[in-house]
Amino acid sequence: xxxxxxxxxNLGRGLSRALIQKASFLRRSHGLIPRVVAAxxxxxxxxxxxxxxxxxxxxxxxxxxxxxxxxxxxRGKFALQVIEGVEADVVYELTPTNIKTGEPGLTHIxxxxxxxxxxxxxNKGPLVVAFRELDSLARRCGVEFRYSASVGGAVPLVGxxxxxxxxxxxxxxxxxxxxxxxxxxxxxxxxxxxxxxxLREAQELGLAEKDPxxxxxxxxxxxxxxxxxxxxxxxxxxxxDVKVAGITRVRPEAxxxxxxxxxxxxxxxxxxxGSLEVGPKLVPLGHPxxxxxxxxxxxxxxxxxxxxxxxxxxxxxxxxxxxxLGDLIDIHRTLGG
Amino acid sequence: MLVKIVMELEDVPGQLLKxxxxxxxxxxxxxxxxxxxxxxxPLGRIPVxxxxxxxxxxxxxxxxxxxxxxxxxxxxxxxxxxxxxxxALLIGxxxxxxxxxxxxxxxxxxRVSDLSLAMGGLxxxxxxxxxxxxxxxxxxSLAVSNLQRIAARKKLxxxxxxxxx
Lengths: 337, 165
Prior knowledge:
Number of strands of chain A: 13
CATH class of the largest domain in chain B: Alpha Beta
CATH superfamily of the largest domain in chain A: NAD(P)-binding Rossmann-like Domain
Structural class of chain B: alpha+beta
CATH topology of the largest domain in chain B: Alpha-Beta Plaits
Helix content of chain B: 25-40%
Number of strands of chain B: 8
Shape of chain A: globular
Oligomer: heterodimer
Distance between the termini of chain B: 19 Å
Strand order of the largest sheet of chain A: 4-3-2-1-5-6-7
CATH class of the largest domain in chain A: Alpha Beta
CATH architecture of the largest domain in chain B: 2-Layer Sandwich
CATH superfamily of the largest domain in chain B: ACT domain
């Protein structure tokens, strides 16, 4: 399968490493031979229809800060030209998220679909802004569209709900969907350290962005709840439909009070038809959603199976490549490979 | 729901165990047992007051039927106040916490049964933990939605229990 990588940041690199490491496994176990025929970032592009050498691509891009440094690479804005012009089967859209406009990912995905290419993305922006549009565009264009990596990182929420639990009606989805805030709340609860101190530490560890607003105000979780509501509950929800409260007012003293009552505080996103909500909640200690550190955890409330909970790593390039690769194998199988 | 019953047992060994077994087997959570030996009946039976928690009315009926089937005579049966409990945290300036409590207590079948405060440092917000005891689940959700309105008006951050929805 010929792949185009649009975006070569942490996730693009993580995926490339996984493709190198798992090349023989993919061929042996899935009869899949992926070939990255182009990689694009905001500074340039590298194209080779015979397939880029990923080890070399990682090395030169690591050094020069752009894939354009690859032999024969070009500097400039080439994303759309590559998406439309290079012969390929699947476009990986892995550019940074913009939850307001969805761009540049939104245009990348639309153009890829119209050019008859299957799309796999980790980018929340386009999904939050235009889920229905993209979903129906994919169908009209006769292409596959996968976005497992956009919610829950390595945790296979979409696949679990859509495939394995397909016989159920999903009544409610609730969960811890943001590793950064969960790390902060966990540290505050274990050490009683003040919010600002733990946040600064998380930033130094690279767990929180320089501008942590989207995480700590609950907006990242709200984006994920929007995506889950649209993709799994069949809703047509927008980010503004989610009632959001963040964790900036949660102090260690509040967590201590919760602990005295056998509870802890978690930032929980809740999606059910007619009500989307994100906010800090009291969760009993030992509850499936009372996970520590940067973990994510989600509970599906279902008519037949009652409750299914799943936990795992919600971020990280290596962990997320599990979902990105899973989507590729899924498309390969869907197409009869 | 919390249930109080008074039953009369024969004054021979093993009677109490016979009465307690179906309660715990059918999902009742026994909270207190009190023998009232001084009130022995003319027939020589001993009244025993029992308080237990049970999930719902159907379960209670099954327990009562099981007791009667064993020949246990039930002389009093009543639902105790405090059937449902929910915990909530409020974060913000708690200068008028009394008012918040009064507003909740004013609702029928709703009572703030426990309060803990953790004062924040200078210029910081404080946290309050409230246990709200209500006659039933319906009143519990009514109390929570009232608390949501109060918190919104006073600009407090309300953290409710995950189960409270």
